[in-house]
Amino acid sequence: MAAASKKFVIETQDVAKLYKSGETTVRAVDGVSMRIQPGEFIGLVGPSGSGKTTMLAMLAALLTPSEGEVWIDGTAISQLPEAERVRFRRERIGFTFQSNNLVPYLTVLENVQLMLQLKNGRLSSIDKERARYLLVRLGLENRLNSLPQQLSGGQRQRVAIARSLVHGPSVVLADEPTASLDTERAYQVVEIFANLIHEENKAGIMVTHDLRMCQYVDRVIQMVDGKVDTELNQREEILEFISCA
Fold first, then answer.
1. In what residue span(s) does the ABC transporter domain sit (predicted)?
2. Are strands 10-21 and 93-97 parallel, antiparallel or unpaired?
3. Which residues, in sequence order, are CB contacts of 177 under 8 Å at separation 6+?
4. Which backbone phi and psi does 173 adopt, to 5 degrees?
5. Domain contains 203
6. Distance CA 21, CA 23 (A)
7. Which class for 10: exposed (0-12), middle (13-18), buried (19 or more C-beta within 10 A)?
8. 3 DSSP 8-state letter
9. Has residue 129 been placed in a domain?
10. Is 130 part of a structural domain of the chain?
């Protein structure tokens, strides 16, 4: 298997995930290869059962490929021992989910700082400023000391975005981040997310059923039956794809 290129933050080669169902082998992901550069925001789309969430889990080092390999920053993550994989995931990968999973008894600022404490074991003045900067950048300067239950759904999701970026990961993964939001708040959240991916030069991937959100991505990868079916990287193609959905 060829080594990964240093040009790409994320690289996969012929990745597959197989499951047994009785006497049948199901290929949930079937031979997917992709390359994603720093500062690139990808929309990963497809119908239910297409394999996009399974693919995201392998990129997140939460699942190990049955075949092929995933590289993050040139590291073949499936080859890492479990303890190293956990540390790698904590340090190099940020997550935003449909359920924002904020700690209910911590303030907004404390929720974001928590990622830095987990990574570094303590909070430096630089860490505290980094957390505050992201929250201000996300328009939450007046909510730093609020508890999650005092926020709107869109505000909670913005806190989750700050938390996913605060520890300086190379990769940020979002699984249906707007599914519980109304349309206006969904647009706001994805636009902010895209801007931060570009500004901070991260590799970002968003899984979404809502193709309207793909107007903010740089490239669309559509999966069908575990395979890459369509890949679009021209602005006009992406907008036409959204309009025809």
1. 10-242
2. unpaired
3. 96, 97, 98, 157, 160, 161, 189, 190, 193, 206, 208
4. -115, 135
5. yes
6. 6
7. buried
8. P
9. no
10. no
Q: What is the pLDDT of residue 1?
A: 53
CATH number at residue 60: 3.40.50.300
Q: Would you say 156 and 100 are in contact if contact means Cβ atoms under 8 Å apart?
A: yes
Structural tokens at position 136: 């201000």
Three-class SS of residue 84?
helix
Greatest extent of the chain over all pairs of C-alpha atoms, in Å: 57
Among candidates 5, 120, 25, 123, which has minimal Cα distance to 74? 5
Q: Which residues contact 129 (CB under 8 A, 6 or more apart)?
A: none
pTM metric for this prediction: 0.89
Residue 139 zone, left/alpha/beta (φ > 0; ψ -120 to 50; rest): left
Q: What is the pLDDT of residue 213?
A: 94
Structural domain range at position 55: 10-100+170-244
Residue 155 belongs to some domain of the structure:
no
Residues 172-220: tens digit of each pLDDT:
999 998 888 889 888 988 998 899 999 999 999 999 999 999 999 999 9
Number of domains in the chain: 1
